[in-house]
Automatic annotation (TrEMBL):
Signal peptide: none annotated. This is Carbonyl reductase (NADPH). GO terms for molecular function: carbonyl reductase (NADPH) activity. Keywords: Oxidoreductase. Its EC number is 1.1.1.184. The keyword Zinc does not apply. It comes from Pseudonocardia dioxanivorans (strain ATCC 55486 / DSM 44775 / JCM 13855 / CB1190). It holds the Pfam family adh_short_C2. Belongs to the short-chain dehydrogenases/reductases (SDR) family. CDD domains: SDR_c (cd05233). It is an enzyme of class 1 (oxidoreductase). The keyword S-adenosyl-L-methionine does not apply.
C-alpha cells in the first residue's frame, strides 16, 4: 500500500492506557463524554460539586457497556471555580492512573438570563471565573503534572452562543466567546506536544439547557435543518474523536455540533 494511503494507526481512535479528566461530569454532556472515553479504553476522572451525585454518575459509568472495572473511574467532588479543588482533581488523577493524557473542560454555569444592561456584575464575574478562568487553571495544572513532558489533548466545551448573539444568554455567550479565543491561544502556545480544541454545541437536551427548549421543544427544533435538538452523545462522539489519534493534525479549532443551526442562520 502507498504510504500516503496507509492508516495512521491500527486503532487510531482507541484510548486504551490513557487517562482523562472530565470536569462537570455528573450528568448531561460531561457524563456522556466520560462514558465515551471509558468505552474507548481510557481511565476517567469525573468532577462535580456534589459527592453523592458523582457517586451515582460513577455507578452509571460502571454499569455501562465499558464499565465493570471500578479502578478505571475516579470521582473528585468540588467546585471548578475553586483552585484547591482543581489542584486536587489533577493531582489525584495523575497519582491514581500514573498519567493525564486528556483534559475536557466541560464545567460551566449560567445563573443569569437576559440583557447585559440588567446583569448583576457579581454573577457575570462568577460565570467567567468558572467558564473561562477555571478552564485555563485546569490546563495549567495538567500541563505541569503530565502534558508538558508527555503531550496530550485538551477539549474545551464552548457553545454556539459564543459565536452568535442569542439575546437571551448574553453573559454566558460572552464567556464562551472568551473560551473560544482561549482555545486558539493555548493551541498556538502548547504545540506541538499538546493539541487544544473546542466544540460548540447548540441546544442539547440536558437539564442545564431545559429553559431553552422545554416550553416548545418541537418549535425550537424546527429551526434546525436536522429537525431535532442535540443529545449528549452527539457531543461526546465528537470529543472522543478530537482527543484520539485520528485527530492528530487538528488543533486550535472550534468545531460546531449544532444540527446545522448556524448554517441556516439560526442563533441558538
Amino acid at each position: 500500500m502507498d504510504e500516503a494511503l496507509a492508516p495512521a494507526a491500527t486503532t487510531p481512535q482507541d484510548l486504551t492506557g490513557r487517562a482523562a479528566l472530565v470536569t462537570g461530569a455528573s450528568r448531561g454532556i460531561g457524563l456522556a463524554i466520560a462514558a465515551e472515553l471509558l468505552a474507548r479504553g481510557a481511565s476517567v476522572t469525573i468532577t462535580a460539586r456534589k459527592e453523592a451525585v458523582l457517586a451515582e454518575a460513577a455507578e452509571q459509568l460502571l454499569g455501562g457497556p465499558a464499565g465493570g472495572d471500578a479502578s478505571r473511574v475516579l470521582t473528585v467532588a468540588g467546585n471548578a471555580g475553586d483552585a484547591a479543588h482543581r489542584e486536587e482533581a489533577v493531582t489525584r488523577t495523575a497519582d491514581t492512573f500514573g498519567r493525564l493524557d486528556v483534559l475536557v473542560n466541560n464545567a460551566g454555569i449560567n445563573p443569569i438570563y437576559g440583557p447585559l444592561m440588567d446583569a448583576d456584575l457579581d454573577a457575570v464575574r462568577k460565570i467567567f471565573d468558572v467558564n473561562v478562568v477555571a478552564a485555563l487553571g485546569y490546563t495549567q495544572l495538567a500541563h505541569k503534572a503530565w502534558m508538558a513532558e508527555h503531550g496530550g489533548a485538551v477539549v474545551n466545551l464552548a457553545s454556539v452562543g459564543g459565536l452568535r448573539s442569542t439575546g437571551a444568554i448574553a453573559a454566558y455567550g460572552a464567556s464562551k466567546a472568551a473560551l473560544i479565543r482561549l482555545t486558539a491561544e493555548l493551541a498556538a502556545e502548547l504545540g506541538p506536544g499538546i493539541r487544544v480544541n473546542a466544540v460548540a454545541p447548540a441546544v442539547v437536551k440536558t437539564r442545564f439547557a431545559t429553559a431553552l427548549y422545554a416550553h416548545d421543544e418541537e418549535g425550537v427544533a424546527s429551526s434546525y435543518p436536522l429537525k431535532r435538538l442535540g443529545e449528549p452523545r452527539d457531543v461526546a462522539a465528537l470529543v472522543g474523536f478530537l482527543v484520539s489519534d485520528s485527530a492528530a493534525w487538528i488543533s486550535g479549532e472550534t468545531v460546531l455540533v449544532d444540527g446545522g443551526l448556524l448554517a441556516a442562520g439560526g442563533t441558538g
